[in-house]
Design goal:
Strand content: 15-25%
Distance between the termini: 32 Å
Strand order of the largest sheet: 6-7-8-9-11-10
Shape: globular
Helix content: 25-40%
Number of helices: 13
Radius of gyration: 20 Å
């Protein structure tokens, strides 16, 4: 990871110390990294700096992350306390997003806030003009890893992971673990250093793994099994996809987070270099894209699905009506766009 000038981290510390109330925000459809870094940062601000801070998320955090959110008072759109928090906040810190547009329905109100705004993110192409201070690096596993490095530079922490609040350390380990798919991808030397330092500081990684991967409902296993056995489709050239329609989601009584990791499974097939998972929502399909080294999930999501992300992990949307006339056209659309992408990038042979 690139090192940030000491003047930059000290400037951030000054902003924090001058603030009375910090609003901490992440992206819509928050994953483990998003929830991990906002939880970690709020607990640092309140526990270490003694400041007031609140978490705002555009949509609900998944149930599988309840072990780090259960004691957090997270505010969502429509909550009467959200306006109250934003009304008294004098600093906005955005984590794990490269643009305020990723806060969806909150974009307008956050953009209009006349307070200092700070970005801490690991995605390509940050909208730097939206913020007063930007910490951006793609050479980290996760926003949690980037935040960890910044927090170590704070004078109260002094480079010691053991000086972090217990909840901060736990949340950082959680976010880093989920965004690397439990160290299966996006792992840098600093990622392993971070994990080692947090372990030495007392984080119970076995408990984290237990919460993340060993507390599923039977519904998840049934839905994922159904999709792999009945919904997995292949595209010539080395791609695979699955589409979860609304009736299927409802039939298995699924909840947010229960398809976490499913998009990675087809990549275990030798010939598959690109995997997509789509889920029907109101007026659009959510698209998750994963790829093997040498094939860009980011390019596919950016050019064909109104999205983007990392080189091997990205996301986007397919709108109806718009990209397609109705949800029934989704499989044909996905097959056509993915085949075009593979052809254009020369990824038609394996």
């Amino acid at each position: 990871m690139k090192e940030f000038p000491s003047e930059k981290t000290s400037g951030f510390h000054t902003l924090l110390m001058q603030s009375h109330t910090v609003a901490v925000v992440s992206h819509n459809g928050p994953d483990g990294d998003a929830v991990g870094c906002v939880t970690a940062f709020r607990n640092f601000v309140t526990g270490t700096l003694g400041k007031d801070a609140g978490i705002i998320l555009p949509s609900a955090a998944p149930d599988y992350l309840s072990f780090i959110t259960e004691s957090e008072n997270i505010l969502y759109p429509g909550d009467p306390w959200l306006d109250e928090l934003l009304g008294r906040a004098d600093l906005l810190v955005c984590l794990d997003l490269n643009s305020l547009s990723r806060t969806d329905s909150l974009e307008g109100v956050l953009t209009g806030l006349d307070i200092r705004k700070v970005l801490i993110d690991h995605h390509p192409g940050p909208e730097e003009t939206q913020f007063d201070l930007v910490f951006s690096s793609t050479e980290v596993s996760s926003a949690c890893e980037l935040l960890y490095r910044i927090l170590l530079e704070m004078p109260e922490i002094g480079g010691r992971a053991s000086a972090l609040p217990r909840k901060t350390a736990l949340a950082l380990m959680t976010g880093m673990t989920t965004d690397t798919n439990n160290f299966a991808n996006s792992v840098f030397p600093g990622t392993l250093e971070m994990a080692s330092e947090l372990l030495a500081a007392g984080v119970d990684r076995e408990a984290v793994i237990g919460h993340l991967y060993q507390e599923y409902r039977p519904n998840r296993i049934a839905l994922c099994s159904h999709m792999l056995c009945n919904g997995l489709r292949f595209i010539p050239g080395g791609a695979a996809y699955m589409v979860i329609r609304r009736d299927t989601w409802n039939r298995f009584d699924a909840i947010e987070g229960e398809t976490e990791g499913l998009v990675n499974v087809p990549l275990s097939i030798k010939e598959i270099r690109l995997s997509l998972l789509l889920r029907e929502d109101d007026g659009f399909f959510r698209v998750s894209v994963r790829s093997k080294e040498g094939t860009s999930a980011n390019t596919l999501a950016r050019e064909f699905f109104h999205g983007g992300g990392h080189e091997r992990a990205a996301g986007g949307r397919v709108f109806f009506p718009g990209d397609i006339a109705s949800p029934d056209e989704i499989e044909g659309y996905i097959s056509e766009m993915t085949a075009r992408f593979l052809h254009n990038t020369g990824e038609t042979e394996n």
